[in-house]
Amino acid sequence: MTARVVSTRPLVFDVLDPDSSMKREAEGTCGLGVFPVVDAKLKPVLSRLKFNQVVRANLFYGGNPDYPQELVLSELALDARPDGGAGVCPNRSGIVISYRSAVEYVNVYSDGSIYFRDGYFNSFGTQKISPDELAQLLKAFGDSSFDRLPSSPPPVGKPDRNSLTLVCARHQRVSLSGLETKIAPLLRRLDALKDRATSQTFYMLLVNGRRKLTILEWPFRKVLLSQIETNVKTRQGAPIPAAIHDPVPSDFLSKLPPAGTISVPDPDPYTYVTDAGQMYRVICACSGSPHCNTFDDLRITRVLPAAVTLADSNPAVGLYLPGGLLWPGDLGIDIAQIG
Questions:
Q1: Which of 127, 252, 269, 309, by CA, is between 20 and 30 Å from 282?
Q2: What residues have CB less than 8 Å from 325, skipping those under 6 apart?
Q3: Is 333 exposed, middle or buried (0-12, 13-18, 19+ CB in 10 A)?
């Protein structure tokens, strides 16, 4: 990997570009990371490392039985440069600010680029702030006396969560626990960068053709689908009718797909049943057994309301089906009319 030295004790790299031949494994190594285990032969080289220096490093798995994923730094070439062309990491200019929450994170790079990953693991990296805006952002760190806050290295081999890191004249990682109020102005600025990172993005509705749904009426009044659903999911709540242990008439049972056989996505392989104004997906839990044909052997999934937001941001109510959304009929527009 090509990396920038941001700390020597402990050894912390800002990984700029892992080997592209290991892209699948390497994407997770981009950014700041601690490399605590070094081959003894590199001791003279380590003494020559300086902050902000770019190096070329080779590593191998150490084979420690207690830590089988432990990486050992085995070779280190000084005064390296990132390779030209497309790389694995989102930016090679070097991280200046790194903001981590539980899943989301924001990186600001020295060239002003913003990289944001949201809670759904969508990544956005096309927007930049100007040099003046970057200078104002760094000034805000100074105004907040960020350099006086306690610092600690990122955890080894673990997700770096709930932290704010500044790599300017030195590497300073601050855990946010208990400091959220003190540095609230900084956090508001970083939250605003999320909006900036997504300012030129939009949602696209993709239509994959229509599917014909099999929708039946529930003809049995001694047992309601809501009672079967309660019985299967919780085994408590409303009284369970004795008829739940009766066999389902074979003519109706034959219309239901057995569990474990549903694999073809189109046409929709499920059977939906309406009862008391609700829609359910109904599956026979097993088939071919004379002892697995009762109402209690049906597997019921209620089709629940879900929020559907159109391009004009007017919320509408849809129905969530396993594998997709059922387009509501009261939107005033047919889905086929949407490009």
A1: 309
A2: 306, 308, 318, 319
A3: exposed
Q: What amino acid occupies position 182? A: K
**Domain spans of the chain, in order of start:** 2-197, 205-339
**Tell me, what's the pLDDT at 238?**
61
- Distance, in Å, from the CA atom of 297 to the CA atom of 245, rounded to the nearest integer, reads 9
Other beta carbons within 10 Å of 45: 16
Q: What is the number of residues in the chain?
A: 339
Listed in sequence order, the DSSP H helices in 172-256 are 184-197, 225-233, 250-253
* pLDDT tens readout for residues 45-64: 999 999 999 999 998 877 66
**DSSP helix/strand/coil, 284:** strand
Identify the residue whose tokens are 């600690």: 152
Give the residue from 76, 2, 3, 6 showing the smallest Cα distance to 37. 76
Strands (E), the chain: 2-8, 11-17, 31-34, 54-61, 71-77, 95-100, 105-109, 114-117, 123-124, 163-167, 171-175, 214-217, 271-275, 278-284, 298-302, 304-309, 315-321, 324-326
Question: Residue 335 and residue 323: Cα distance in Å, rounded?
Answer: 17
Q: What is the pLDDT of residue 156?
A: 80
Dihedral over Cα of 274, 278, 281, 283: its sign: negative
Give the N- to C-terminal CA distance of the chain in Å, as an integer: 44
Q: Above pLDDT 70, what percent of the chain?
A: 77
Can you tell me the distance from the alpha carbon of 223 to that of 245, in angstroms, rounded to the nearest whole number?
Answer: 10
273, 256 Cβ separation under 8 angstroms? no
- pLDDT, averaged across the chain: 82
Parallel/antiparallel/unpaired status of strands 54-61 and 2-8:
antiparallel
